[in-house]
């Protein structure tokens, strides 16, 4: 796996591109007019994407009818010397459709305990939690 990062303006805007040519923009979001996401926001996005792929994949294999899928991810950071790494990350899954709540909860559990490479990479240093809501009800 390899990505390429290219600076695309005179400040802090970077384009990160994967081997298939897909890209995202990273920027210093503390500056006015930022045109990309911060690197730390991209970490939260990676957790959401990785676990989201897992949960949807598991539920589709179980023939659950997902009408809507959303994840909200929040990270708490802590000062360590000059850096501010994540101390904890919480993911809230919001699913709508003909979905067995127990299956949705089990899918999230499997993602974080077994399949999601992003959260597994972070978990030695970051506490990761999750919540699952199906049709507006917390499971």
Task: Describe the protein in words.
- This protein has 139 residues and is an alpha+beta fold.
- It is built from 3 helices and 7 strands.
- It has helices spanning 39-61, 101-115, 117-122; strands at 3-7, 14-18, 23-26, 65-77, 86-98, 127-134, 137-138.
- The strands form 2 sheets. It has a 4-stranded mixed sheet, covered by helices on one side. Strands 1-2-3 form a 3-stranded antiparallel sheet, with no helix packed on it.
- It starts with a strand and ends with a strand.
| Main beta-sheet strand count, sense and barrel state | 4 strands, mixed
Morphology: globular
The whole-angstrom Rg is 17 Å
How many strand elements? 7
Sequence stretches where pLDDT stays below 50 over 5 or more residues: none
Q: Helicity range of the residues?
A: 25-40%
What percentage of the residues does DSSP assign to strands (E)? 35-45%
Distance between the termini: 36 Å
Strand order of the main beta sheet, please?
A: 4-5-6-7
Task: Return the average pLDDT rounded to an integer.
Answer: 97
SSE-based structural type: alpha+beta
Strand/helix succession: EEEHEEHHEE
- How many distinct helices? 3
Strand and helix layout:
Layout: E1 3-7, E2 14-18, E3 23-26, H1 39-61, E4 65-77, E5 86-98, H2 101-115, H3 117-122, E6 127-134, E7 137-138
Parallel strand pairs: 5-6
Antiparallel strand pairs: 1-2, 2-3, 4-5, 6-7
Describe, in short, the structure shown:
The protein has 139 residues and is of the alpha+beta class. It is built from 3 helices and 7 strands, in the order E-E-E-H-E-E-H-H-E-E.
